[in-house]
Amino acid sequence: MPMRVDIVTQEGPLFSEEAADMVVLPGTDGQMGIRPRHAALLTTLAFGELIVRKGQAEESFIVYGGVAEVRPDRVIVLADTAESTYAIDVEAAHQARENAERIMREGVPPDKSAIVMQELRRATLQEDLARKVMSRANAAIRIRTIED
């Protein structure tokens, strides 16, 4: 029995899948894997990677906070902000990280500190996940059998 997965941001629906096999969520208490028939759950989300798996296919997103409601047949993610990891502009993320680091070194007014730290965290996460997704595309997946 597959499950429906919906990812919604403040801008509107981002992703919907009718028959997912698994969802990996970046919960504030750590990563959690959700499969069909999971117990009902409401959790807050941290900054991190959200993965939706269906058979051998996989979709990957960066989530910047929010909440997820898990039901036995459905996962609804209400993200503060989210984007596909496949759409990351690595150069722009690198530039944003360098700019935020430069501003932090030069000194940040107290009223701007949280904004700069948020931008640094976001850009670093984008760079890290872009590298991770690119390495996955080149990696062979080994299917383990009982005999292994």
What does it look like?
This protein is an alpha+beta fold and 148 residues long. The protein has 2 domains: 3-85, ATP Synthase, domain 1 (Sandwich), CATH 2.60.15.10; 89-138, no CATH class. The protein has 2 helices and 8 strands; from the N terminus they run E-E-E-E-E-E-E-E-H-H. Strands 1, 2, 3, 4, 5, 6, 7 and 8 form an 8-stranded mixed β-sheet that branches. Strand 5 and strand 6 form a beta hairpin.
Mean pLDDT: 85
Radius of gyration: 17 Å
> CATH architecture of the largest domain, please?
Sandwich
Find the structural class using helix and strand composition. alpha+beta
Beta-strand percentage range: 35-45%
Estimate nothing, just give the exact number of structural domains.
Answer: 2
End-to-end distance, in Å?
A: 28 Å
Largest sheet: 8 strands, mixed
Tell me the series of helices and strands, N- to C-terminal. Answer: EEEEEEEEHH
CATH class of the largest domain: Mainly Beta
Number of helical segments? 2
CATH topology title of the largest domain:
ATP Synthase, domain 1
Query: Which stretches are low in confidence, meaning pLDDT under 50 for 5 or more residues running?
Result: 138-148
Supply the CATH superfamily name of the largest domain: F0F1 ATP synthase delta/epsilon subunit, N-terminal
Helix content: 25-40%
